[in-house]
Input
Amino acid sequence: HTDSLARFTEELGGIRVLSAPEQLRRKSRDFFWYSPILNEQLEGRTADLVVVPQTEDEVVTIARAAARHGLPVTVRGGGTGNYGQCVPLAGGVVLDMTAMNRILSIRDGVAEVQAGVLLHALQQEAEKVGQQLRMFPSTLRAATVGGFIAGGSAGVGSVRNGVLKDPGNVLSVQVVTLEETPRVLELQGEDVQKVHHAYGTNGIITRVTLALQAAVHWYHSIATFGSYADATRFCHGICGTDIDLFLLTAVESGFTPYYKHLAEYFPPGSHAVFAMVGEDSRERYRAQARAFGGQETLCLPEAELHARRLPPAYECAYNHTTLQALKADKSWTYLQFEHPHPFDLDLCTRFKQRFGDEVLCHDEFLRATPTEYGAYGLPLVRFTTAARQYEIMDFLEASGCLIFDPHVYTIEDGGMKTIDQNQLAFKRLADPAGLMNPGKMKAWEAQRAPA
Ligand code: FAD
Output
């Protein structure tokens, strides 16, 4: 890319550029190392240049220059994705969005922001006016709004508000196309799906309008149970009741070595449910935990946890759970799947019977459809070989689960399975030369491959 890069750089004017080898390396990585398979494939893939726009005009200038000189562009938010989504497979330019971090407006139930705003910063501002995010990844502190929409899917809050793609969560996005004359397009309502979870392969999201919810005072709770089956039966039993929940996470006792700082509340031998419970639901939640054979061991608001140097419940959930274990023991990796509908209460027991200590159960409960609750499994798995990972996935698939393979970097293989024709059509329009995050949308690569 040497000549093209030189000409590209000349057209950038005063736009901030990073080119030191260590900066390039750092801005070309995400959390793909959770998977030893991805780690082998992606380690060392590095951008030639990082650009850091501060305004929408600067994004347009970068898009124009990249299109003119045929340079690959990989957009990057906080870089917290798990599947190498923002790793520039073909080198070129990494477009770091984190300086596009203005909150444009927050009014009743709606926030309009630039895409590089950190979710945590938006949450803080929203709370000042009695509002809150409807959902966020457990990487709240490091992830951006644009990265969550382009790379994420669900998270903390999903037990109350469903998944990100459900109507009413993301209201609109503004997208800059990668063309010699870039266009600024507005996608509203259902059209947002054209770029949601498209890994930044079909346009640069510059602005987002998100729905907010009226703020609730959440209490972070730990309840323990004598068996994992009791813990999940409890979670399943309280979904859809009048107990106001924002998070509901079950982990088996095998996780206790990784939660030593919480040993007083999650002691060895017990199985835990981490939850965020509305202030007015605390008594009912506690009573239900008892009714299902458990006991609540901790229930505090976030500020109080912070004062006691205890983590919030959401940092004991989703892929933070995986992270706790990986910090202590690098031989773990993980899988992701959606439990069958209706929920199969015995699946976890059969899973453990079949694979024993090779796996540790971890499940996230959520509102799967407007009327139905379900769960995502994020079990830890001891890594031996790639073939063994797929044997375990086969077992889950044969048990009725939908696999979201965390060991692949393309959109389709990661769980979408089928080609999203809307996303592909939007790519033809927004990135006609196929310069955006090359290699990540299989459908695009397939149509370009020689017959
Ligand atoms: P990045 O990682 O920087 O980017 C993600 C993808 O979006 C990339 O393909 C990138 O090219 C694209 N992109 C970024 N910004 C833009 C933009 N402005 N325009 C177009 N494309 C863009 N995910 C969940 O969904 N739920 C969870 O609960 C969750 N928990 C996690 C916990 C841990 C510990 C870790 C490591 C990851 C977790 N993730 C989770 C994955 C990830 O953190 C989230 O999806 C997060 O929202 C990604 O945001 P980001 O700003 O870091 O995006």
